[in-house]
Fold these 2 entries.
Entry 1:
Amino acid sequence: MDTIRIHGGRTLSGAIPIAGAKNAALPLMAASLLTDQALHLVNLPRLADIGSMRKLLSTHGVAIENGDASGEVSFNAAAVADTTAPYDLVRRMRASVLVLAPLLARFGRARVSLPGGCAIGTRPIDLHLAALSRLGADIDLADGYVEARAPGGLTGADFEFPAVSVGATENAMMGASLARGETVLRNAAREPEVVDLGRCLIAMGAKIEGLGGGTLQIQGVDRLHGARHSVIPDRIEAGSYAIAAAMTGGDVTLEGADPVALEALIDALRRSGVAIEVSATGLRVRAPGGKTGGMELVTRPYPGFPTDLQAQMMSLTAIAAGTSRITETIFENRFMHVPELLRMGADIRVAGATALIRGVARLKGAEVMATDLRASVSLILAALVAEGETVVNRVYHLDRGYERIEAKLAACGADIERTPAPS
Ligand code: EPZ
């Protein structure tokens, strides 16, 4: 397993190109199953999770070809033969569950392994199954698999999500696109990645209204056709680097970042003293002369503060001038970065879903362990400002969501290098 070594204390300055959004690309790739024509996706990021989804789609029989431009891939599901998503693939990436509705809607059946939990929580899929049942699917759970059947196709319905769920909204929207009649989805997720999927489905012939709001109205159609769609920029990658710039006292331009999708973060950073300019090319982040101030943060579904930037903000508050309080309301176990930050000298106390952070003068480099995707990047950020050397182990977590992180940070002046595991 590779490790990353960082010597802290460098100020970041320069430009970082922002890649396509992982959490938009994954549902967009699954949407290729909804048609027998080619779906061309552009601006796909080069990430481990994208590779996992390609592998899963190939097992279903989707023909996948790299395009000429970088990040361009075409997917053709004309010859899908197998509607089973096997445990061995689904357990590696829970977003695999996004093939459930497309397989069910197009072929009338799907057998998808239950994803199982992960480091940040049990992460059930009951909301996905409740929505698809409402659309007329017969759902059984057997041998750790979801067996879903809709031999006569899905039927439009009015369904209210008891809780906001990004993935369940995405599955329901894909299922409803090919259902008979109208579907209304209430308390739907509003994340930019959900909107991006909706826009791609519309380009494929779906009839969806209300994207970006909490209620989606979908008129089912008999079939969807191919399309060409460009993936939106990754707001979580951009946000992670914005926080890095703020922490190191730097001046960094995030090329291609979408300021609208980052409003909650921009607001929090500005309130703590960080200067942020929106430009035609993206976002320019300049740290205050001194330290950022303490803050109060509560994670919420979009447009609230994103849970996927919670760990990164905890690293920022660990060295802020003052006390901060961060409350995680989306996942039940998303403070795995705390023990590692404590080993770097942070002053953090956790009580249930709330962490109280007292800013310290400096963190100290240490050998630390990555546990999940966003926790691992929070350790990289802490290492950038820590005294001395930090070694981050198990960086395969990072590769799931950050393309070439060491190259992007080194290009802005960080003293960072990746050492391959001894073979
Ligand atoms: C998506 O996960 C993202 N992943 C996550 O990003 C992100 O943290 C999350 O949305 C919230 O924004 C992808 O898009 C691939 P949810 P998802 O369904 O869809 C509970 C990252 O780091 N829930 O909105 O799985 C669930 O346990 C990843 O890039 C149910 O109880 O999230 C959680 O507590 C991590 N039953 C809450 O709802 C369900 O059927 C929100 O989950 C579904 C979810």
Entry 2:
Amino acid sequence: MTRTADAQASDPNDVAPAIEGLETIVSLSKRRGFVFPSSEIYGGINAVWDYGPLGVELKNNVKRAWWRAMVQDRDDIVGLDAGILMHPQVWVTSGHVGSFSDPLVECGSCHRRYRLDELPGAEELSVGDLADPGVIARFHLVCPNDGGPLSPPRQFNLMFQSYMGPVQDEGSIVYFRPETAQGSYVNFKNVRESSRKKIPFGIAQIGKSFRNEISPGNFVFRMREFEQMEMQYFVAPGGPPAAEAFEAWLPRRRAWYEAYGVDPARLRFREHAPDELAHYAKKAIDIEYRFPFGWKELEGVHNRGDFDLSRHAAASGQNLEYFDPATEEHFIPWIVETAAGADRAAFTFLIDAYREEEVKGEKRVSLALHPDLAPYKVAVLPLLKKRPEIVELCHRIKDDLKRDVMAVYDDTAAIGKLYRRQDEIGTPFCVTVDVDSLEDGAVTIRDRDSMTQERVSVDQVRRVILDRLAAARP
Ligand code: ATP
């Protein structure tokens, strides 16, 4: 719940983004089936995007990679899948009903609405400025669309709300969760007692969140419906255990993006200034990525102190203390949170993997996605689709591979074009069956990045591909 001004690309040591603008990725996404505008046949709905056949594979792989690193590989973290709808008191206690808002201004002539801190000329505004009714005049801000006069800022709550049950009144209001974290806090006792975890331990969750963003945009970077991957790590109270956990999680989370292929030069840390910290936070550092539109938050690591559990304990009247058998003390744990976005991470991996090069006088586009993230791991292609024995062998190999990985067969073009299509969607391996295969029982495995080709006997194909995928795994 950190509402902060987005960092601008003013770093003197700025690095170039992986791609110039978003058009290449947006059009590739549409053309190849990664991401489509939601409800497109009705003209779309702002800031909601649908994942197509390849996009859903990519995003599932991103979530799987996160779950592997945060739950499967760890003895001290367990998973949770809490409901999107929660008791409305949760959001009062957490502070969201009162203060999960952004400063909104409206143009007096064209009536467009903007987030004040995202207006041109508002980059340097302090938190105090953002709440000042005189800020528009003081900084000579005007509507970026038509130069019209802007209203003083008002706080706009970002939570979507609805009514539960048949009666629509104050008492039946429910909120669509704007973060997954609260589900972990209100389940702290259930999870601890059922899993018998001892502090320090964590609760990890992946799930949809909703925010009525004032100025969404930049494709899937800022949406109104999105998915988060958040982990809450419960530690002993007082400064040192939380500080220690914070210092451990920060580089570990950055290393996760690097392990899955993001160029380290395009990642950096940015610490929140004291006046920028959310009301609950003792310390917050963002992991930022150099997007084509500037350095922006990819993930936040937050030291939340005992704010969440203390507040929920007081408001619910439940005892949320932890009993430490070693010291025989009862206490409210402190929390260190790692808060990432599944869409933002998938978007980052896509951007950072984009390559254009010239090969034999022709442009080659490829996505150098980490094999664990690639939608398809392998494509099985016939050199001659007119030969039924070749096609049949292709299907046999593909079906065999499908037991373990996403594999696909394609014969709708000549081999050169088939390779280019697979390169463009990031398929790490192509297996080609040719006339010789029928004689020597061997096929060609082509590597996406080096474009090298290797002859492998048919009965070894599955083993070779699985070994290479395992070897690439972080
Ligand atoms: P921002 O400053 O970009 O609005 P935030 O600081 O409010 O983000 P958090 O509340 O810390 O973000 O959320 C954790 C993560 O969830 C973010 O780092 C981001 O990856 C993701 N996220 C947040 N809001 C959105 C959104 N509107 N669309 C897509 N992902 C989002």
